[in-house]
Amino acid sequence: MLGIGPIWMSGNQDAQARAKRLLDEAERLGWVEEALFLERLLLRAQGGEYPAVEKVLEKALEKEHPDTPLILEVMVPFAVARYELGKAR
């Protein structure tokens, strides 16, 4: 991962805007597309678009993505909030 997580996890809109700029810069510098894609998904989820990215994140978990702990860190609070405790495991 690119280390953007602590920024987007804060929930602060200024921090999320900064994270978006860092991701754009990372893309410009040629960072790995898959890592950028996941970081953007997680940023979108934290920014209020969780339902739009949930299925893609679930598929990443099914494939045992190497960043599963980070994905779960984002997904579990949403699952718990919706009482989807099976997904929160």
- Count of individual beta strands: 0
Low-confidence stretches: none
What structural category characterises the helix and strand content? mainly alpha
Number of helices: 4
Taking the sheet with the most strands, its summary is: none
Q: Name the helicity range.
A: over 70%
Intertermini distance: 23 Å
The succession of helices and strands, N to C, reads: HHHH
Sheet-strand content, in percent, reads under 5%
Cα-atom Rg, whole angstroms? 13 Å
The shape is: globular
Provide mean pLDDT, rounded.
83
Provide an overview of this structure.
The chain has 89 residues and is mainly α. Helix content is 72%, strand content 0%. The chain has helices at residues 5-8, 13-28, 33-62, 68-81. Helix 3 packs across helix 4 (68-81). The model has no long low-confidence stretch (mean pLDDT 83).
Summary?
The chain has helices at residues 5-8, 13-28, 33-62, 68-81. The protein is mainly α and 89 residues long.
Comma- or semicolon-separated keywords:
single chain, 89 residues, mainly alpha, 4 helices, 72% helix, globular
Secondary structure layout:
Blueprint: H1 5-8, H2 13-28, H3 33-62, H4 68-81
